[in-house]
Amino acid sequence: MFRGSIVALVTPMAESGEVDYAAFESLLDWHAEQGTDGVVVLGTTGESPTITTAESDELLRRAVRRLGGRLPVIAGTGTNSTATTVERTRRACEHGVDGVLIVTPYYNKPGQEGLVQHFSAAADASSVPVILYNVPSRTACDLLPPAVERLSEHPRIVGVKEATGLLTRVREILERCGDDFLIFSGDDASCRELMLAGAQGVISVTANAAPRLMHELCDAALEGDASGALLVDQRLELLHRDLFVEANPIPVKWSVARLGLIPPGIRLPLTPLETRHHAVVLAAMKHAEII
Q1: Where are the domains of the chain?
Q2: How far from 280 is each of 245, 273, 274, CA to CA, in Å?
Q3: Which of 84, 115, 224, 255 shows a CA-CA span of 20 to 30 A to 287?
């Protein structure tokens, strides 16, 4: 069910900060047309920390209804509170999502046993497949392979989004958990190498702006076509880098707005892309030939 280029979708907002639900639905249609293989709604790229419960419910309802089985819908439900994560996971399942993505608890810095218990509690509450999300550069918390191995024994935990970009990490998880356990890159810049090493896809920021190319990159890499994947990745390499010239999702929201797909809104504490970075991101878009 989960494979290939899965977009970590931005949440369209008006300049006032209000969620633009019409733009959200249009964005879902565009990704289906462009070949995106799955959609994560309410991930951190979707500004989940600033989205209210009512907005979350409406976004998930609309995503499930709009895509209608065309693409799998994965809800980001992770927080740094186990009780809140459990509640968000239950609510997402009630809306009919195909899976949930749960990030490691940020700031709290739990140990490995705490992480195992946190994810296990959320998986117990879920009626759909669970993907773990490890991004220590943003959470100050690293889910290590031995803990992933323990969690892989839970019947609803099916994979991990691994954002360290380390090939050695992917290989160790594969050795410990077996080929049936799904690994997704959480780092666009290294996703090609990770897929060639055994990952099943990427949960991507770049796919917001270049969904067709990311789909083609994943197809080539997953077929073992290293040279074909490299050719596509060379077009995308500046996007992989420069969509992080400021904190994600500031640059990627600017780029998607520049394509005319969403309004320019973003919520505090994030602010719009600084003017000095506009030319940098635009040059990356031109290098990829998406504009």
Answers
A1: 4-223
A2: 8, 11, 11
A3: 224
